[in-house]
Design brief:
177 residues, 2,3-Dihydroxybiphenyl 1,2-Dioxygenase, domain 1, four-stranded mixed sheet, 3 helices, alpha+beta
Length: 177
């Protein structure tokens, strides 16, 4: 007989997973020797007294999104530009790196680091911002030194801009219902 919350992986039914989820507020997905929950916490699978992997005695490990790293030819200048553009604060700065955040104790932040090569291709990841007034925000960012990207299409609800080093970001229009 098995107790609630104790389930060797090879015979744990979906019913048992549902009952376990109802009592713990988490669904567990088995990935090799790790169980990952929808809130992105992970924990190791613990063996039962018989040596079989089980879902008992799970202790979630916290995973917190700390920052995004931005490669830059001039990290200090680019970091200061983004701090002004976003209204964020500098929380760490040396001769080579600068980190900015919305508030000193609020994450995630942006960490600007030096790289020897310049940007050569479109970013694979870029931020989108939704201001109250798209037109005014685009004008403000352009006045700070952003440039318009060449990728303008008719009737798109966003404006693609480039920061001083050519990294793309979008300023979105009003949210559509």
């Amino acid at each position: 007989m098995r107790e609630e919350g104790w389930c060797p992986l090879e015979w744990c039914s979906s019913d048992h997973f549902s009952r376990l989820a109802a009592t713990t507020s988490r669904y567990y997905i088995v990935l090799r020797d790790t169980i990952r929950t929808p809130d992105r916490r992970s924990t190791a699978v613990t063996p039962s007294p018989g040596g079989q992997p089980t879902l008992s005695m799970l202790t979630p490990m916290a995973l917190e999104w700390e920052q995004i790293i931005v490669d830059s030819s001039d990290p200090i200048a680019l970091g200061r530009w983004w701090a002004e553009a976003l209204g964020w604060v500098v929380v760490d700065e040396s001769e080579e790196i600068i980190e900015i955040r919305p508030e000193p104790d609020q994450m995630p932040g942006l960490l600007f680091v030096p790289v020897p090569e310049g940007k050569t291709w479109k970013n694979r990841l870029h931020p989108d911002f939704r201001p109250d007034d798209q037109e005014a925000e685009v004008a403000r960012l352009l006045s700070l030194g952003a440039r318009r990207a060449d990728t303008v299409q008719d009737e798109q609800h966003w404006v693609t801009l480039l920061d001083p080093e050519g990294n793309e970001f979008c300023v979105l229009g009003e949210r559509k219902s």
